[in-house]
Specification:
Blueprint: H1 9-21, H2 26-33, H3 37-44, H4 52-61, H5 66-80, E1 112-113, E2 116-117, H6 120-138
Length: 143
Amino acid sequence: MNKRDLTSIDITESLKQLRRSRNITVRDMGKLMNYSYSYISKVENSKEKPSTFFVSAYLKALSYNEREYNELRHKYESSTGISIKYNDSINFLSSETVLDLSRPFNYAENIIFDGSPLTSEDIFILNHIIRAYLKGKDTNSIF
């Protein structure tokens, strides 16, 4: 197998596709990773060479648990021949992760709430409830 470095278009494009499959914007990814969204965009578009620390943070921010992180890390290590070290500074993607419910959602990846998957109608209703709550919070009158 011909090994590639971390700036290979295949590698950086697959990072972008992974992020998109989780329905996470570049800006949200920046918040999850504590990196600027412009740097993440440059990496995803092969304009910046990412460090192994960055790739580890990227993969961990998009992983739901350590098993999934290790599978993703192994995939990238196998395709590049570069060892990616574990990153303690980033949390796994979890039910507490902030999702932008106002944009279209990829329902191939269900959002689970209290053990039940949310439908598009559920998300539509939650979007309106959260907006009403935030509007009331700003004016000191809830609903």
